[in-house]
Write the structure tokens for this entry.
Amino acid sequence: MIISTINYSQNIGKADEWHLKDVSLGRLNLILGRNAVGKTRTVNIINALARMLSGRIPGLLNGNWDIVFEHNDSLLRYILKIEKAKVVEERLSQNGKILLKRKGDKGEYFVEGEGNKKYYPPEGKLTNQVRRDKRELPYLEQLIGWAEKYRSFSFSNVRPNYMFARLPVPVGRAGPDLVAEDLGMAPYLLDEVQNNEEMKRRIIKDLAYMGYKVRDLRAITSSIPGFPGDVRTIQVAETGIDFPIDQLALSQGMYRVIAIAVTINYLIQEGAESTVVIDDIGEGIDFERSSKLTELIFKRAEDTGIQLIATSNDRFLMNTVDIKYWNLFERKGKTVQAFNYRNSSKAFDEFALTGLNNFDFFADRLYRAKTHD
């Protein structure tokens, strides 16, 4: 199951009211926009919904979500309104047919062959937190399954010493559900797969494409002075250098590339259909590697079950990704609007005939020429 469209609002009628309109997504997506337009905020909106549905965060976060998912040629629409950490409205429909609806602590859900059943959930809980049944509510399981497989990473926060500022993850107890949410935890993922020679060769090949000539890499157990417990770190053997290089000696850019290469290859190996978000993709590495990295990740995700959503404002990588995958964000006051191929197809198609650089489409705002076809 993948996200098809997103609309969102919060704090309606207040000074900090905010709206997100018409974000249409496919399998591969690049969200673009100038600084402070709402790219990372959009990622956080999706993160919040996935984490609430999967139970990865306690309590509820305020906001109004209206998200449509595509699943097996059908559309699943989920509407959720939360105020003061209480559910005001929750609704789930499939191809227009309402399957679940509630207002506050009163609701009903549809059971195949039995019709609607009433239920009375606490206002401070989502339906799936108090009522789960694979037979009666299979459609709710689809939504929960998406949330549990959802992965989100912030590229700009990853540093070789990033993990040491966190609570230690005991060696041997770091499962993929924990580490596959954080690029800084890539050593633990590498520990999971380092005996898989085929995968290791694929990671090393990806690093070579990025310009890093590596003959081997592995996860090792390290003791860091002043840091409690043992941790996993990455050790890299570069071509032409006789001794291995420990993680703390790696440059920030090199570690970020290694972390994303390990993580993406791991997720592809998992093989499950999932939504993967990378915020600020390519941040902190030079423009050539940033472009190559973006090109490689989009190519890797192309023939998999992964829905890739990346954000950036880097002009160089814009020329790497086909504009049909773009969502261009503009903010006017309290409202962020997305321009994409689905709602501005003529502008996108006409630009493709100009022979201009992709960056011109962004810089000159040519996507606004003809909209909402």
Remarks:
- Residues 2-342 form a domain with the Rossmann fold fold (CATH 3.40.50.300).
- The first helix runs from residue 39 to 54.
- The chain has a mean pLDDT of 87.
- The CA atoms of residues 1 and 71 lie 5 Å apart.
